[in-house]
Amino acid sequence: MSTLIIGFLIGCAFGTILYLGGATSYRRILGTLLLKDMWIIKLMMTAIGVGSLGIYLLDMGGLANMSIKPAYLWGIAAGGAIFGIGWAVAGYCPGTCVVGSAEGKKDAIFTLLGALAGAFLFSLAFPYLESTLIQPANFGAVTLESLLGINGIYIAVPFSIALLFLAFFVLKDRYD
């Protein structure tokens, strides 16, 4: 039960950061998609930089268990296309539509309901898709760590530093 409470509290903290970072603002999202406002991109780069280093450090300390999911080529391509189109049309990604719904934004609520309906339909179609589309393009758990033959922390550290450097020193907040 304590794991659920910790997960809930982490989710609340994440949602708060998204809200305070403006990730549910239509103007911010549109500016990001038009590559004119870098604020959300900087927020994402910071989260990925800190998160990737943090998860490797937690794993090294035995406080996390890295579980790499198999790379399904068609799933990655279809999922990326659906994610990108959905974000462009609705103005929300999965995390921000939950935060926007919590704010009471009607468009976010409908986006969340659509995402849940899509997930439900996918769960119904999964048994049929697995043998025809998913398994033939299963490449297993592919990681840079396994491809390069080095410990992941040696990838995570420079990757995190590069993302944080880009976020804080290279990207401008606004492009005109």
TrEMBL record:
Signal peptide: none annotated. InterPro entries: Sulf_transp_TsuA/YedE. The keyword Transmembrane applies. Keywords: Membrane, Transmembrane, Transmembrane helix. The chain crosses the membrane at residues 6-26, 38-58, 70-89, 109-129, 149-171. This is YeeE/YedE thiosulfate transporter family protein. The lineage of its organism: Bacteria, Pseudomonadati, Pseudomonadota, Gammaproteobacteria, Cellvibrionales.
